[in-house]
Amino acid sequence: MASYSHFSHQIGNIAHRHITVTAEQEGESFTIQTKSIVLAAGGFESSTTLRSQHMGSHWEKAHVRGTPYNKGEVLSLALDQLKAKPTGDWGGCHAVAWDANAPKDCGDRQVSNEFTKSGYPLGITLNIHGLRFFDEGSDLRNYTYAKFGRAILAQPEGEAFQIWDQKGVKWLRSEEYRDGVVEKIHGDTMEELAGKLLAKGLKDKEAFIRTVEGYNNSVYAHRNEHPDAKWDPAILDTLSTQSSTSTLEIPKSNWALPLDKAPFMAVKVGCGVTFTFGGLAIDPKTAGVISAEDGSVIPGVFCAGEMVGGLFYENYPGGSGLTSGAVFGRKAGIGAAVFAEEKGL
Prior knowledge:
Helix content: 10-25%
Number of helices: 7
Order of helices and strands: EEEEHEHEEEHEHEHHEEEEH
Structural class: alpha+beta
Shape: elongated
GO molecular function, one term: oxidoreductase activity
Keywords: FAD, Flavoprotein, Oxidoreductase
Number of strands: 14
Distance between the termini: 26 Å
Number of domains: 2
Domain FAD-dependent oxidoreductase 2 FAD-binding: 20-320
CATH topology of the largest domain: Flavocytochrome C3, Chain A, domain 1
Cofactor: FAD
CATH architecture of the largest domain: Alpha-Beta Complex
CATH superfamily of the largest domain: Succinate dehydrogenase/fumarate reductase flavoprotein, catalytic domain
CATH class of the largest domain: Alpha Beta
Pfam family, one: FAD_binding_2
C-alpha cells in the first residue's frame, strides 16, 4: 500500500497547471503528475489519534470494523496542503453494536460482517451494571443500527450485553449470531444467566435481575391493556412497555416481548466504528472540492466516498453510504476526466 506524504497543487500558467502527488511505497518515494485527481481515500476511523481528537478520548476504545488503513492521511493532506474546506459532523460516525471479542484495530476479511450484532430489537440490552440505556424498539433497524454503537461506547467500559429468551433467539440472523463465531452465554433461569455473566464483565447481578423483572412487568401491563395487539417485527407494531399502570424511564417502544421463555441467551457487545462523518466540502453538481480560502472550486480536484463531508449528522439510514459513493463517485469521475481532457491529458 502506498503512503501519500505530499500534495503539490501548482497553478502557474493555467495551460501547464498540474497536480503533483508524492507517495512512498515499501520505502521508495515516487511522484505522480496529473491534470486532475479524485480524492477517495476514506475517513479517519482507523486512527485512534484522530478519533480521540475529533470525537473524544473514549473513542479510543472503539473497534474498527473494516480496513486498518483509513487513518485520515489524505484527508489531512487535503486540508493542510490543498486548503480544502472541511465540513460535516466531525464528531460523528457510523457505529454499530459489534462483537466485544472481535479484533480491535481492523475487521476480519474472512468473518467479515458476522461481528455485527443487530438483534437488539428482539430483546433488551443492559450495561455492565445491569441497566438498560436506550430504547431497543425506537425505530426499524435500518434507522437505528448505525447510532447504537455510540450508545454502547458511552457506557462504563464501553461494553454491554444483549439478552433474549427463546422467542427472540429463533429470529436472530444466522450471519450475525452463528455458532463458532460469536460467544453465546446461556442460562436456564435469568439468575443463572446473570451469574455466568459475572465472569464476562457484569458488575451487578441483582440489578441485572431487577431490570429484567421490571421490564417484563411493564410488558405484561401493556398486554393487559391491549390484548388484541400483535407482535410484528416487520412494522412498528407499538407493542411497548408503556401503559396507564406501568411505565419505564427508558421505554421499549415497539416489539416488546417479555423475556420469560427459557433458556435465555446473552452476547457481549462493544462499539464497531465503520466510517466517520466529517470530510471535505464539495460542489454537489460536480463533486469538485471547495477551497477554504475563497469558497471556489479547486481546479482539477474532486472527491467521492467517505471523504465527502456534510451528508450525515448523528445518525445514518442503512444503504445511503453506498448511494452516496455511487452518485458522487460518478460525478467525480466524469468531472476529473472532462477537466483532464480540456487541459490536455
